[in-house]
Structure formats: C-alpha cells, structure tokens
UniProtKB/TrEMBL annotation:
This is 4-amino-4-deoxy-L-arabinose-phosphoundecaprenol flippase subunit ArnE. The gene is arnE_2. Keywords: Membrane, Transmembrane, Transmembrane helix. Gene3D superfamilies: 1.10.3730.20. It comes from the Bacteria. It comes from Rhodoplanes serenus. The chain crosses the membrane at residues 12-32, 52-72, 79-98, 104-121.
Length: 122
C-alpha cells in the first residue's frame, strides 16, 4: 500500500466521522427530552422510550460495523485520526443547531485538528 490514503478511503473516513457527528446530535436531542428533576432510574426508563436515543444507538451500531469494514482496507494508524474530525465538526454543528457557544479558543483548536488531518491524509 502506498503511504497516502486514497480518495475513496478519505471519503469513507469523512463519512464515518460525519456519522459520529449525527449520532452526537441525536444524543443531544435525547438529552433535551429527559425529565430534568427526575431520579436516575426514571431518566433511564425514559431513555428506553426516547426515539432520539434509540436512533443514536442504531446509528452507532451501524457505524461500528462500518468501522470494522473500513479497517479491512485501511491501516488503523491511518484511519483513527479521522475520528478527530468528529471532535472538530460536532461543536460547529452544535453551535448552529443548539446555539451552543463557540469561543475563539475552540475555533483555533478545530483549525489545528484540521491541519493535523491534512498531514495524516497526505
């Protein structure tokens, strides 16, 4: 295998990371629908009937299968840094969708992650 990742590998890894972002958005939607003043037990029971939570679990299950497939043709050491893309994109999406704060420090950190991915993808 050549040193750099192919365009196909990069696209699949970006898709995987974006799937993780979507899963985090689903988990946030699930959290927003939990009873705030409830006991831990009540909250756990509420999760079982929470469609957003169930959807997140299904998505993460599918992503786990996808990850194993990706590792059949991509070295783990080259694939795993793309998980960091989810760390960069999730706060941006959360800022847009949930109006969560985006500080300059966070944005600089996201730029550093992106620069690292460019180096890894080669």
């Amino acid at each position: 295998m050549k040193d750099g990742l192919s365009s196909f590998q990069i696209l699949v890894l970006i898709g995987y990371a974006l799937g993780m972002v979507a899963g985090q958005m689903l988990f946030k939607l699930a959290a927003l629908r939990l009873p705030v003043e409830a006991t831990t037990g009540t909250r756990l029971v509420a999760l079982l009937g929470n469609g957003w939570f169930v959807a997140a679990l299904v998505l993460y299950g599918a992503l786990s299968v996808m990850w194993v497939w990706v590792l059949t043709f991509t070295p783990l050491a080259r694939a795993y840094p793309f998980v960091a893309l989810a760390f960069a994109v999730t706060p941006l999406v959360a800022g847009l969708v949930f109006a969560e704060p985006l500080s300059l420090r966070l944005l600089v950190g996201i730029a550093v992650i992106a620069a690292g991915l460019v180096l890894v993808a080669g």
